[in-house]
Amino acid sequence: MRRLETLVRRDGPACVWCGHEPWREDLSVEHLLPRSRGGSGVEANLVVACRRCNRQRGSRPVDAYVRALVIDGRAPRLAVLKAALERLSRSSRRAEVAYATAQLSRLSRLEPLPTAA
User: Tell me, what's the pLDDT at 110?
Assistant: First the structure.
């Protein structure tokens, strides 16, 4: 729970994907680069998400899930996502750097997107 509180202080208490602010018990730690794809548990790879969005995203790439959200009429917190991916692009792990760089590039091609505050 301590890690989640650190992320909430850094990024705010709203889900990075849907922008809602659920009860703290309904927040979870989301891996930008999923562990199943080689992501680590370092804070640069983590953001706050509601449990529902975390489950729905699964291990899909960031840009694919953002696209799905927009199609469904929901607006991700794009500024928070981009800041998180920028942090991840400075990781010491090559896989995380490559993933973050690719995702930032793909997100820039999706714009303009509606965003939540």
Answer: 77
Contact 32, 100 (CB under 8 A): yes
* Cα–Cα dist 65/12, whole Å: 20
Architecture of the 2-110 domain: Orthogonal Bundle (1.10)
Give the residue extent of every domain in the chain.
Answer: 2-110
Q: Can you give the pTM of this predicted structure?
A: 0.89
Distance between CA 115 and CA 40 in Å, rounded? 27
pLDDT digits (tens, 9 = 90+) for 45-85: 999 999 999 999 999 999 999 999 988 988 899 999 999 99
Contacts of 47 (CB under 8 A, 6+ apart): 7, 11, 16, 29, 30, 32, 80, 81, 84
19 CB-side CA count, 13 A: 14
